[in-house]
Amino acid sequence: MTRQDRAAQAAPKRGRYHHGDLRAALIQTTIDLIGERGLPEFSMAEASRRLGVAVAAPYRHFADRDALLAAVAVRAAELLGERLDSAAASGTAAQRLAAAARTYVRFAADQRSLFQALAGSGLDKSSYPEIEHAARSIGLTFLTPAAELADGDETAAARLTSAIVATAHGHAVLMLDGVFGSGPQATETAAEQAGAATLALIAGQAHLSNVAEAVAPDRSEEGI
Amino acid sequence: MTRQDRAAQAAPKRGRYHHGDLRAALIQTTIDLIGERGLPEFSMAEASRRLGVAVAAPYRHFADRDALLAAVAVRAAELLGERLDSAAASGTAAQRLAAAARTYVRFAADQRSLFQALAGSGLDKSSYPEIEHAARSIGLTFLTPAAELADGDETAAARLTSAIVATAHGHAVLMLDGVFGSGPQATETAAEQAGAATLALIAGQAHLSNVAEAVAPDRSEEGI
DNA sequence: GTCTATATATCGATAGAC
DNA sequence: GTCTATCGATATATAGAC
């Protein structure tokens, strides 16, 4: 036998990875590593090491580091979409929206790595249309109940949707940044507040229509 | 003369930096580099090169890369604070809050590098209390008018403040991510919508109080 | 306070064997 | 599809001269 005795069959050498779906394993390991060290520190080399494959192996499955991160982002969008759909499955339109907002924030806490890959990776989404596509259903989960509340006005429905999504997103991001404190209590505070803010936005929905008027004419002189 | 002829006095060698306030120059150059290449790609080495100093020089002023980024974040918090104060200087409480929300979003667009250093650097703020301190006045700019609207209820004022800040922040972040489109039009759309959403939150303020009730008793069974 | 020089590390990505 | 080997680049950070 050669130096390494082929090293696979008889002695699987501790975590050696030599079979199955390397692509899927890379995605999962990437999620783990982002959780442990943060997205910026994630590297292809470390993922390879952890899986016991050569540093060249991942390049059979992903063109580069960004492509791997994009695959993680797609997975994140899918999972978040599923959770939102479950959360917004029943109740009045307002209840469904509030539940979706709470779920959005909890997802960010629970699946921090996935959420960061989706929202904090700085990937140019126009370069990765798969992400946009996967994210589309997220918007729809909010849009459907919003349309009920907007009384047939599509523009109003779109505005309500994007205000609610932005609000949920803001709560999620600030929570991850520690603004609501730390620990599970912080998550619940942020989630409940996002839900309550959603109800408040719905109640004050009429104010959202003023956006059009404000944006309409040219107003290049506005100063700071 | 030695090999380089001391190289400074007579021939300032193109952008050579040999005087003045290197600390301040580093902060400015960092802002420039973040704008050009993005925060993750920023490096001390490149900042040094651009200033024409040795790579070791910055370490006289900043312990490490994070410390330099923290200094940029402090500058960002100061500048944002000033802008918010100007924007929220007059009008009714609701008008001041809406103006602050719009200004928050515009700042993120206008001063993208600073905003990213403040909000997207992933620096542990508890390690850099200077940032938290500098950020404090941002919260106050929102809190003061919110307190007027909350009719003496401090808890309600705090909730309204944090809902509005989270909403403004969410609009800013999503705008930078391209969700509102691209170009100056996207900024205005996001800013105006953040302002309108602020007014909607104020109008629906009563719903924010339900947070307390919702969080109060143990409710570990909620499912996904 | 800045420079030169360097130690140390790590990474992304590719070529070519098997 | 995976491995070995490696190139080339870049980074952070320190030591010691000036």
Task: Walk me through what this model shows.
- 2 copies of one chain form a homodimer.
- Chain A is mostly helical and 224 residues long.
- Chain A folds into 2 domains: 22-60, Arc Repressor Mutant, subunit A (Orthogonal Bundle), CATH 1.10.10; 73-207, Tetracycline Repressor, domain 2 (Orthogonal Bundle), CATH 1.10.357.10.
- Helices cover 64% and strands 0% of the residues of chain A.
- The first copy, chain A, has 9 helices and no strands.
- Chain A has helices spanning 22-37, 44-51, 65-87, 93-110, 112-119, 129-149, 154-176, 184-203, 210-215.
- In chain A, α3 (65-87) crosses α5, α3 runs parallel beside α6 and α4 (93-110) packs parallel to α7.
- Chain A starts with 21 loop residues before the first helix and ends in a 9-residue tail after the last helix.
- At the A-B interface, α3, α7, α8 and α9 of A face α3, α7, α8 and α9 of B.
- Chain A binds a DNA duplex (18 and 18 nucleotides) through residues 18, 22, 43-46, 53-57, 59-61, 64-65.
Short characterization:
2 copies of one chain form a homodimer. Chain A has 224 residues and is mostly helical. Chain A is built from 9 helices and no strands.
What are the key terms here?
homodimer; 224 residues; mainly alpha; Arc Repressor Mutant, subunit A; Tetracycline Repressor, domain 2; 2 domains; 0% strand; disordered N terminus; DNA-binding
Kindly report the greatest chain-chain contact and the residue count on each side: A-B, 53 and 53 residues
CATH topology of the largest domain in chain A: Tetracycline Repressor, domain 2
The amount of helix of chain A comes to: 55-70%
Broad CATH class of the largest domain in chain A: Mainly Alpha
- CATH superfamily grouping of the largest domain in chain A: Tetracycline Repressor, domain 2
How far apart, in Å, are the first and last alpha carbons of chain A? Answer: 75 Å
User: Strand portion of chain A, in percent?
Assistant: under 5%
Give, in order, the helices and strands of chain A: HHHHHHHHH
**Major sheet summary line of chain A:** none
Question: What is the average of the pLDDT values of chain A?
Answer: 89
Helical/strand content category of chain A: mainly alpha
Weakly predicted, low-confidence segments of chain A = 1-15, 216-224
Report Rg of chain A: 22 Å
